[in-house]
Amino acid sequence: MFVTYHPAFYFRAHWLRPVGKMDWQKVKRWVRGVWPEPFPEILTFPRGRSLRVAFDTEYEPWDGGRLIRSSIAWREDDSTTHVHVVEAGTQWGGPVPHLLMHNAEADWPHIQAVFGGPPPAWDDTMYAHSVLYGTWRHTLDFLGSLYARTNRWKHLQLTDPLVYSGMDALATWDAWAALRRELAGDPASTAIYEYELKPLLPHLLRRPAIRLDTAGVEAQVGALEDRQREVAERGQVAAGWPLNVSSAAQVAKWVGVK
User: Fold this and answer.
1) pTM, entire model
2) CA–CA separation, 98 vs 72, rounded Å?
3) pLDDT for the residue 68
4) DSSP string computed for 111-134
C-alpha cells in the first residue's frame, strides 16, 4: 500500500503540491524495489563514528529534561549504514567535527554529557526546512515522509523504542542530505538559514524571562474573539446560512469578488 494525499486535495492546499510530486516520484523507486529500505541493524554500543553524524536524543520533558537515551547515525555510501543507540550515561567519546540535528534547541543541552563538548560545526534540518518551505510542517515525522530512505517509524515509540530512536537519527541524516542540495540552489534561503536562524540558538538556549502583561493579553484575546463572532454573524446575514468565513472561496462568492 502506498499512501499519499488525494489529488483533489491540492486544489484546496496548493502550497502542498510539491509534496504530492515528491510522493509520486517515490512510486518509481517503490516499483523498482529500491524504496523503502529495510530498517538497518540497531547497534547498542558507542563504537565507530564518522566526521559527520546525525544526533538525536530521547528525554523526559516533565523531569527537567532528563536524558533517557541518545542515538547517532550516518551513511558511508549507498550500501553501508550505521545506527547506534545507547542509554543515558554512555559517552560517545569526544566531540564530532560536524553534528546534524533536528531541533537543535532540544538536543543541545545533552551534547556536553554525551560528547564531552560542543561540535565545531552543526546543522539543523528543522531550521533548514523552515526557510525553504515556510508553509509546511517542520516536524521530523513530516521530513521523514519526504526524504527518509526507509518507511515510517514514529508509531514505534512505545513498542520498539530502540528502532524509534535510531530511525530518528537516520531520518535526520537523510533529510539533511536532501536539504543541503536544495539550499545549494537557493542562495537567499541559505543566507537566512546561516546568518539569521542559526545565530538564534544561543539565545533560545538561555530562555531569558519575558515579562508578560497577562491582563492585557486576556483583554486582547477577548476582543479578538468578539470580533470573530461578529464577522461570522455578518457572514451568515450576507449568505443566509452559516458561512465559513475561513474559506476564501465562500467569502469571495458572497461579497462578489471574482
Assistant:
1) 0.81
2) 12
3) 95
4) HHHHHSS--SEEEEHHHHHHHH-T
- Residue ranges making up the domain that contains 250: 215-254
| Consecutive H or E run containing 58 | strand 52-60
CB atoms within 10 A of CB 160: 15
Q: Are residue 141 and residue 83 in the same domain, yes or no?
A: yes
Collapse the DSSP code of 84 into the 3-class scheme (helix H, G, I; strand E, B; otherwise coil) and give the result: strand
CA gap 41, 81 in Å, rounded: 9
pLDDT average per 10 residues of sequence, the chain (258 residues): 87 88 90 92 86 94 90 89 94 89 95 91 97 94 95 94 97 97 96 96 86 92 93 84 79 74
Q: Are residues 106 and 170 in the same domain?
A: yes
Residue 16 lies in a domain: no
CB neighbours (10 Å) of residue 179? 26
Please tell me the total number of residues recorded for the chain in this structure. 258
Based on the fold, state whether residues 230 and 138 are members of the same structural domain: no
Do 244 and 163 lie in one domain? The reply is no
Residue 174 lies in a domain: yes
1 lies in a domain? no
What was the pLDDT predicted at 15? 85
Whether residues 230 and 117 fall in one domain: no
For residue 63, which amino acid is it? D
CB 104 within 8 A of CB 81: no
> Order of strands, edge to edge, in the sheet holding 52-60?
80-87, 66-77, 52-60, 98-101, 121-124
**What's at 68, amino acid-wise?**
I
